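Input sequence (291 aa), recorded before submission:
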Amino acid sequence: MGDEGEIFVRRAEFDDQPHINELVGEEAHVTARRFGDYNVATMIEQASLGITAVDDKDAVVGYAAFFDFPYLKNISQQDWPSWLHSAYGNAELTPANTAWLSFFIADPLCQTEVAENILRTAFTTLPEVDALLLALPADVRPFAPLRDTFEQLPAAEHATATGGVDETDTPPPEAEYNVYVCPRGLYLPELLVREARVEDHDDLVPVFDSQSEVLSERYGEFFIAELIASQDEVNRAVVGEVDGHAVGLMGCSSEIDVSILQDCFDLEPYENLMKPDDDGVARAAAARRRA
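Predicted structure, token format:
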């Protein structure tokens, strides 16, 4: 599978369950303190994203489960944003741009590499996610290797007025947990999408040539610059930029030869990409009723 010692990651499978439990082993009490009551089989089945890490011999060396909500018994799966924003602020963290790391285990001999690969893969697999969140009981300190990448969110001012604990018989949820955040930028560069400019040509040529030399041979050395320069009302080009350099290009056009698409693909479920007239819609509805 690769060089000796290399770590690979893949989607978690139900058959990984016994191997993950073996990783937990005698540290089950420590894992339970960190993540509460857990069931590996249930997490594999229900997690929004489960990632298993394996070594070059295909032995399981790590596992992580990500959910759309904090996997905590006294935090509502639906109302967790209100809890988070009330306790910690950070209104920019929403269900639309976050995921919760609710379980993590790794072989101590390669835990840093496992975390690196799993977290990078999570951000790659979930392009809409800007930050990963981790909730730990207040009496549990961040642990290796996650403490190197997750930073604790400070409590909102109103929550720290009494030291973070409401002086009642039942402490509020924010007093029971600390929340940590890992931003996407630690693992993947932030991408700026903008309109393409002719001067992007020099950055884009090596990107294209590294994937196919046929384009330059077929369309000429300056076809990228020509494509960008030919933008008009119906043909547009955008680039993705990282650290001031264009790293990707997309050309878009509103001029579509529908007949070619109709010849090459079965588009009947999509009305052959044509806008049906009112009579056509009525006839189709009548046909469905008769069927």
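Checked by second reader. Residues 192-253 form one domain.
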